[in-house]
Design goal:
The structure holds four protein chains of four kinds.
Chain A (H helix, E strand, L loop, with lengths): L3 E5 L3 H12 L3 E5 L14 E2 L4 E2 H12 L4 E3 L4 E6 L4 E5 L4 E4 L1 E4 L3 E3 L16 E3 H10 L13 E8 L14 H16 L4 E6 L9 H10 L4 E4 L2 E6 L5 E7 L4 E7 L1 E6 L1 E3 L1 H10 L26 E3 L9 H21 L1
Parallel strand pairs in A: 1-2, 1-9, 2-5, 9-20, 11-18, 12-13, 12-18, 13-14
Antiparallel strand pairs in A: 3-4, 6-7, 7-8, 10-19, 15-16, 16-17
Chain B lengths: L13 E2 L6 H9 L11 H5 L10 H10 L2 H8 L7 H5 L6 H15 L1
Chain D lengths: L7 H24 L3 H11 L2 H15 L2 H6 L1 H27 L9 H4 L1 H4 L13 H28 L14 H28 L5 H14 L2 H23 L7 H13 L10 H8 L6 H5 L1 H4 L8 H9 L5 H4 L7 H5 L6 H12 L20 E4 L8 H14 L3 E3 L10 H5 L3 H17 L4 E4 L2 H10 L5 E4 H10 L11 E4 L13 H10 L1 E2 L23 H15 L6 E4 L2 H10 L3 E4 H7 L4
Parallel strand pairs in D: 1-2, 1-3, 3-4, 5-6, 5-7, 7-8
Classes of the chains: A alpha/beta, B mainly alpha, C alpha/beta, D mainly alpha.
């Protein structure tokens, strides 16, 4: 008899897990809410730390999927019924699916920068998010202020929506630091004369080649890193942004004007994940990400047999870590299916 | 001018836009290692002069980057140039030339 | 500036404001600073809008000025406030309106405290009972007086004789609005429009035809800061704060500053004079200062009240240039005449600021 | 009747100009001496020192003794030019007296003698006659010089044969002077030969034969060719003389003055002075300093070596960055054939660049040390190598010495690093503090673990106590039997720290100590030729990456014979080497401490 696995979410983790499971001879159905698979990876111009084009990884994952996986796009799961040893999924399209194992790879949402009211995102002309900047890079559109000027000074605000009780998120989103450093370098590549500032509390260069990239940003690109969290922004008459920060290294308040301010927005759990978790009675952490069965040893399993987790449903993940995690999840699912 | 018994308080704020970056630009050219400081403070911790007086050699680098020339002038005078900091620095910042080059740059401005 | 962004935020910070039967408590200091403001508020509510506003003669300070100056303990402040509520309860009112921003902040703080710590409320009930024998109900609605004017801004506009338009050029007047820190910085949800982009004064200005200036130091404190002002040696710190704001707003060439706090208009007005005397600087056009108004004064002007009845002659920054722009007639001869028509004497003219 | 022809003018003008420049500069330099040095100079001229000075001028400026010691081929090349030319002038003058008609000959007369005199009475082989002897001698000397010229040409392409890897990059004036210098002697040979051949007599063994050949080849036109050559000869000489004061060859007259300055006991100064100017002028730009400079050989920095530095100082084009880019290791000074105080001139220029910023050391406390017979001063750097301090404490305790650890709670810098920046006045404030500290300790022996401190204690502190580096002191303790030692069977290579070796001339003590406890292996460059570890405090404008290149290169050489341990006697060297060494790096004190039996 054929055993079926349904993967909800066709991002990096979902795609990888689907390929791995298919390689292991499992029958896989990959459900994706959007028109195409790829998730957030589709929005990246170049990836940290080596600044290779994002489409390279996307193409690789897509080619790997090939035709061995049943991919169904524009699908939303409305209800999940947990059976004795299987699951019944009701889709918004009216169809229903049965499966033996279920992998949640529904990923994350980006923090809504409007919630940090004091930064004036969506109010001041020249405050944008890192995702918007990445999109500008990707589209090749000229990067200017809203007034069409070449920016002479660009600021990157780290930890927007992360490590911030006021934003409701105590956790670190991990990848924003390195994203900020990457984008700062890319701004300098475009505008060598521009002054680029990173406003940070800690720079968490946690993975391989990250710290070297930070060093390069300082040494080769003359990017300034100023330690302190931006407290508030205001708009000048010429629509440049005045920001206030404590320069914690001199213990004095500091004020400066930037032409363009980029907010490095962090991860938040997607409402979709939480909705599915509620249907499956899965435990949710204080940070509102899903809890695996064991943080160290069963990180892709849940307390509910047959339900597995991969990638950013469990918190902030980099692409490479999500791919590795999804591979682990595939092996765990394969092992589980064998016991049925 | 009337006397009211008080004067307008001077701001402690670092006004980055107004500050003078010429010394910094001189240093970027003549001692580019200044760019790589990560403000770890190990230089200050080992500093010979810093054991005896409120001298923070890490702050020299920071003040320079902020364009705070007046306090910078006072700070650099306290250095003995003993060189311990260079041996400690994890990023290869050449502090001794930093001190001397700041003095040269300030001289040039005046 | 993306105005839709602000509007979206304003939508999120809607506040319920009672529409009648107000129990009004005064500010300790405003009658000295801007003597007609509270009177004008009552006049507008009663005469123009026909509302029921009640003042109890036994009401006192909220003790906020002492609380923020670290001389009154929180328990004392809560008990004083409990007494105010008991006066409201005894008078049969449920909608509490304060004239003072600091009071408003303190009432909000106390009510939030009682909400989260009901045992504290019980204790305070005990203190009040023990001290005065009184009991009280919590108000159904607490509003700042500017909230009330905000609520009826369109009614005022429709009854008004003037709009915030330069009657010579036809262009909207450019207005700096300044919200007292204690209005919404502590509890953003208690203020109309929240803490970062409060709407309470903006709404008045916009609906009365003016144009709001959003300048970099808008959020900054006026410089009152209780302890900073009260100790003379610290006044240099207070005035430096005001100066920072003036310098930031000056390039926008504001026609006047609108405020909703007892302290802010006081310091914007007096410190402009002090700065002009100390440093020879003025922040308005042609050696003038920037006139500073309370929202009650502005409402009175919109409604066509006589400027000298609004107490504008006691402002240290002359308001005549603004009255000229608004096209409001005034009699320079009666500026310093008392109610009985007797001359009260003219103050010395400032050295640098243009005086009328 | 005085012999004259127009072509003598370029030479005569050049000579007059050169003499004017020499007199002008010598006068200027001597006059600028401070009064006490001027007195020394006056006294010196009338003393035996004058003659020993002349001897030194002969040995060094003409024979180039030091060059010979370095490389025979290089020495011969220099000698053939200097001594050969000198003798040619001398012999030419004597020869010209034979044919002289007046008591005073114009200077050009002996130089162009063959143009004016065509003596047919004596033939080239009659060398037993006086004129015949001189003809032989003059030809011989000319060929002697030409042999040097051929070597100089070979050196351009094959500098390694002369013991040099890199040679000096020359300036325009240097190249003009060089071309003239190289032209002078071949042209003279040709001019004389053509003349002698045309007249059929008057030449020596070389010129006459060559002339006869030319006469056959060119017949009547050889007279015109000869005349043109005499013009060329005069021009070459004239241009050489005029460019000489602006070229490297200015060292010829300047070095003579320097030799007398030294002989007369005029001391070098800490600030720019006549002495330093004469030293700068005396640099012949021979370039032997280039190869020894580790900044060039290991770190590929090729514009700061002593020869270029001194040149840029002389041309008043020296930059701050170049002045501060020098290890001040002393290797170039050690090898300089002229013996120029290169390090001192470096510091003088640093002083000139040090600007108006006074230091503020008002924070220095009142020194209040405990009294003891022996005072131990670890030094700043030693505090970063606590194992050296532990070893010293252990040994001193073992030996039962009553000592006071002067800087146990942290050092006030000894002042040498500040001096190395040229700020010797500000270093003085630090020196005053530490000097007071040492004096108040009442010690009669001062021991330090840091060669940097050691050097400045000896040179600048003027202390009435014995100043010892810890290697010297430990050797004393061991010799007196206070510290028992056993041999540790380890192969060790010893690295001479710059300030202990070249700087303080102590090569023996650390080696003797090591010989007692371990097996010393050969290292290629040691003692006076020892390499700098790369950690030098003398250098200011260098990246850490370039420093690492120097350190790695030195390590390669120091460990070439496979030691188990690299031993040094300086905390800075130890710290510098430890980072990159593949083997253990220890201080001599640690080796000694480790050899004390349990």
């Amino acid at each position: 008899m054929t055993r079926t696995t349904v993967i909800i979410g066709g991002g990096v983790a979902g795609m990888t897990a689907a390929s791995r499971l298919a390689d292991l001879g499992e029958q896989v159905i990959l459900l994706e809410r959007e028109e195409q698979v790829g998730g957030h990876l589709r929005n990246w111009d170049r990836l940290f730390p080596n600044r290779r084009p994002g489409y390279e990884v996307l193409n690789y994952l897509t080619e790997e999927l090939g035709s061995k996986v049943d991919i169904r796009c524009l699908q939303t799961v409305t209800t999940i019924f947990s059976g004795e040893r299987d699951f019944q999924l009701q889709l918004a399209s009216g169809k229903s699916l049965r499966c033996d194992a279920l992998l949640l790879a529904t990923g994350f949402d980006l923090f809504d920068a409007r919630r940090k009211e004091e930064y004036g995102y969506a109010i001041y002309d020249n405050v944008i998010t890192s995702a918007e900047l990445e999109e500008l890079f990707r589209s090749g559109a000229p990067i200017t202020t809203r007034q069409g000027k070449v920016p002479k000074r660009v600021g990157f605000v780290h930890c927007v929506g992360s490590r911030d009780e006021k934003a409701g998120n105590l956790y670190c989103s991990k990848v924003c630091c390195v994203t900020g450093v990457k984008q700062a370098i890319e701004i300098k590549e475009l505008f060598p004369e521009a002054e680029v500032f990173g406003f940070y509390m800690d720079l968490r260069m946690f993975d391989r080649h990250f710290e070297e990239m930070y060093y390069e940003a300082q040494q080769k690109w003359d990017i300034n890193f100023l330690r302190g969290r931006v407290s508030e922004c205001a708009e000048n008459q010429d629509q440049s942004i005045v920001l206030k920060i404590e320069d914690t290294l001199t213990s004095r308040p500091l004020k400066m004007t930037v032409d363009l301010l980029v907010l490095l927005v962090g991860f938040v759990p997607s409402p979709e994940t939480l909705r599915l978790a509620a249907m499956l009675d899965l435990p949710v952490g204080e940070d509102r990400f899903l809890e695996p069965a064991d943080e160290h040893t069963k990180s892709t399993l849940t307390v509910k047999p047959g339900v597995f987790l991969a990638g950013a449903v469990k918190g902030p993940f980099s692409i490479s870590n999500a791919i590795a995690d999804a591979g682990t999840a595939a092996l765990q699912i394969h092992a589980y299916l064998k016991t049925l | 001018m009337k006397e009211f018994g008080y004067t307008v308080h001077k701001e402690r704020l670092i006004d980055y836009d107004r500050n003078d970056k010429r010394v910094l630009n001189h240093l970027k050219k003549h001692e580019p290692s200044v760019l790589t400081c990560i403000a770890c403070g190990s230089c200050t911790a080992t500093c010979s002069a810093g054991q005896l007086v409120d001298f923070n050699i890490r702050l020299v680098q920071t003040l320079l980057r902020r364009g705070e020339i007046e306090p910078l002038k006072k700070e650099v005078r306290k250095c003995m140039l003993c060189g311990k900091c260079i041996l400690i620095c994890p990023r290869g910042v050449n502090m001794r030339n930093l001190i001397l080059a700041i003095q040269t740059a300030i001289d040039k401005l005046q | 500036m993306i105005i839709e962004g602000k509007k979206r935020l304003w939508q999120e910070y809607q506040k319920e404001i009672a529409d009648d039967r107000y129990f009004y408590v005064r500010s300790c200091v405003r009658q000295n600073f801007f003597p007609a403001s509270e009177k004008v508020f009552l006049r507008i509510l009663k005469e123009e809008l026909g509302k029921d506003v009640y003042e109890n003669a036994a009401h006192t300070t909220c003790s906020g000025i002492g609380y923020h100056s670290d001389v009154v303990p929180f328990e004392t402040a809560m008990t004083v406030i409990a007494r105010q509520f008991s006066l409201m309860t005894e008078s049969g009112y449920e909608h509490f309106v304060t004239s003072c921003i600091t009071s408003f902040g303190l009432y909000s703080e106390v009510l939030e405290t009682w909400k989260h710590f009901p045992d504290v409320l019980q204790k305070v009930r005990g203190y009040l009972k023990e001290a005065t024998g009184r009991t009280f109900e919590l108000p159904k609605n607490v509003a700042h007086a500017s909230d009330v004017i905000f609520r009826f801004r369109n009614e005022i506009a429709s009854r008004g004789t003037h709009r915030l338009v330069n009657h010579l050029t036809g262009k909207p007047l450019r207005v700096v609005e300044h919200i007292g820190c204690h209005y919404s910085k502590m509890f953003p949800s208690k203020g109309v429009g929240g803490a970062e982009y409060p709407y309470v004064l903006v709404g008045m200005i916009e609906d009365w035809g003016g144009e709001v200036i959003d300048y970099p130091e808008r959020r900054h404190c006026c410089g009152f800061g209780f302890r900073q002002y009260i100790v003379r040696a610290n006044r240099g710190y207070s005035i430096a704060n005001s100066k920072k704001k003036f310098e930031s707003m000056k390039p926008y060439q504001p026609d006047f500053i609108l405020t909703n706090c007892p302290g802010c208009p006081m310091f914007f007005d007096r410190w402009q004079y002090a700065l002009s005397e100390m440093e020879g600087v003025t922040y308005g056009q042609n050696g003038e200062g920037i006139p500073v108004l309370t929202y009650e004064e502005l409402s009175g002007l919109i409604l066509g009240y006589d400027p000298w009845d609004l107490g504008l002659q006691v402002h240290q920054v002359p308001v005549e240039p603004l009255l000229d722009k608004l096209g409001i007639p005034y009699d320079p001869e009666t500026k310093f005449a008392g109610k009985d028509g007797q001359d009260l004497g003219r103050p010395d003219a400032p050295t640098h600021m243009k005086f009328f | 009747m005085i012999s004259f022809n127009l072509f003598v003018l370029p030479f005569s003008f050049g000579l007059i100009y050169l003499l004017y420049m020499i007199i002008r500069w010598w006068t200027k330099w001597i006059r600028a001496l401070p009064p006490e040095d001027r007195a020394r100079f006056r006294k010196g001229i009338f003393s035996r020192q004058f003659f020993s000075g002349l001897k030194e001028v002969f040995l060094e400026s003409l024979v180039h003794r030091k060059m010979f010691r370095r490389n025979a081929l290089l020495g011969f090349m220099h000698m053939s030019f200097a001594l050969g030319w000198f003798l040619l002038i001398l012999a030419g003058n004597i020869e010209s007296r034979i044919y002289s008609t007046s008591h005073v000959n114009p200077p050009y007369y002996p130089i162009f003698l063959k143009f004016f005199i065509h003596d047919r009475t004596v033939l080239w082989f009659e060398i037993n006659t006086v004129p015949g002897f001189f003809r032989f001698l003059m030809d011989f000397l000319l060929l002697f010089i030409l042999s040097g010229l051929i070597l100089a040409m070979i050196k351009r392409g094959r500098s390694r044969w002369f013991g040099m890897t890199r040679t000096t990059h020359s300036q325009l004036t240097d190249r003009v002077a060089l071309v003239c210098l190289w032209l002078i002697f071949p042209v003279r040979l040709l001019a004389e030969s053509f003349t002698d051949g045309y007249y059929g007599a008057g030449g020596g063994f070389a010129t006459q034969h060559l002339g006869n050949l030319f006469a056959v080849l060119f017949r009547e036109s050889s007279q015109h060719i000869a005349y043109a050559l005499w013009w060329l000869y005069s021009l070459a000489l004239g241009i050489f003389f005029v460019t000489l004061p602006f070229s490297r060859y200015w060292h010829i007259p300047t070095e003579v003055l320097l030799i007398f300055f030294r002989r007369f006991g005029i001391p070098p100064k800490r600030i720019a002075s006549s002495f330093s100017q004469v030293e700068i002028g005396a640099c012949s730009r021979c370039g032997v300093c280039i190869d020894v400079c580790q900044l060039g050989s290991a770190a590929r920095i090729h514009d700061i070596q002593a020869v270029y530095f001194l040149r840029s100082v002389r041309d008043e084009q020296v930059s701050r960055d170049i002045t501060l880019r020098c290890l001040v290791c002393g290797r170039c000074q050690e090898t300089c054939p002229v013996g120029i105080n290169i390090d001192l001139i470096r510091l003088i220029e640093r002083y000139n660049f040090s600007g108006s910023h006074a230091s503020d050391f008002t924070y220095l406390p009142e020194p209040a040390p405990r009294k003891a017979q022996v005072a131990y001063f670890a030094g700043c750097m030693t505090h970063l190598t606590p194992s050296i301090i532990r070893a010293m404490k252990g040994i001193l305790q073992e030996a039962g010495i009553d000592y006071h650890f002067l800087d146990e709670e942290g050092s006030v810098c000894c002042g040498r690093p500040m001096m190395l920046s040229g700020k010797h006045e500000q270093a003085g404030e630090l020196i005053r503090f530490n000097r007071e500290l040492i004096l108040q300790s009442g010690a009669d022996t001062l021991v330090t673990s840091c060669p940097i401190c050691f050097r400045v204690f000896r040179e600048e502190y003027n202390l009435p106590v014995r100043i010892l580096h810890h290697t010297q002191y430990l050797l004393e303790l061991i010799k007196s039997g206070k510290v028992p030692l056993q041999t540790v069977f380890r192969k060790v290579a010893y690295h001479d720290p710059c300030d202990l070796g070249r700087g303080s001339n102590e090569y023996r003590a650390p080696r003797e100590l090591l010989a007692k406890v371990a097996e010393l292996v050969e290292v290629p460059e040691e003692k006076e030729d020892a390499l700098c570890c790369g950690g030098s405090l003398g250098i200011y404008t260098i990246s850490s990456r370039k420093r690492d290149l120097i350190t790695s290169d030195a390590l390669d050489k120091l460990t070439s014979s496979g030691p188990e341990v690299l031993v040094t006697a300086c905390p800075l060297c130890k710290k510098t080497f430890s980072r990159l060494a593949g083997i253990e790096v220890l201080d001599v004190a640690e080796m000694v401490y480790g050899a004390i039996p349990e």
